[in-house]
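Table S2 (continued). Query chain:
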Amino acid sequence: MLLSLYDEIILKISEFMTDREKIYLSMTSKRMDQLKYKIRYVELVSVLDIRSLPYFDNFECVHAHMIISLDKIPKHVKYVHIVTTETNIPRFVTHLTFAFNFDKPINNCIPSSVTHLFFGAYFNQSVDDCIPNSVTHLGFGWDFDKPINQCLPTSITHLTFGRNFNQPIDKCIPALVTHLTFGFFFNKSIKDCIPASVTHLEFGFHFDQPIDGCIPQSIVKLTFGKNFNQLINNFIPQSVKKIILHKCYDQNISQGLAAKIKRI
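Corresponding output:
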């Protein structure tokens, strides 16, 4: 009974340690060495680095640069990160990154286990009816520039567009998005386009559209690129705590806004 309670206490303490600290702890005595088979390791690690360890099944977060089978991942895994150029994605993958040169259709390709989805630089295919409702984090690469109307699931909270994206976004941004980033070439109207859930909004180099009535009260951080030179006085809600403006911006700035602005 005493040893069982002792084990439970150590296991609880280990939850507040890094994986490296857990390994060091297991090296302090024979008793501790036995506990390393019960301790769970939660930091991201390559499957190749742990495949020969006798406590392989205790790792909860792994990544691989290839498609792997179910019997090649730890039994207690919770998060599986994969970087691939293939479309036969296993149904246990949670974090999916398509490689730099990937540019294939993705219809019926992405399993509902995926929560984080990122596309490589070359990807420029339609995503209509392709992204499952499980995805919360979505990032597009440099080349993506396809229409997104009714393409993005309502589950998305973090949305990043790449360098070339310059499509209309009216009624396109999901209502739960909190972090929204546009790339280098985006320069479309944002009137009635930014949902009230967004707290962090970033525009790229070419954006230079009027923002009167466009910035929701939820925004706390607002970033503009080099080309932006529209009026901002009276158009920035009180919720905004920080505004990033390029040093080229030359419109008048009220004293109240000046305290929130950082020039780059």
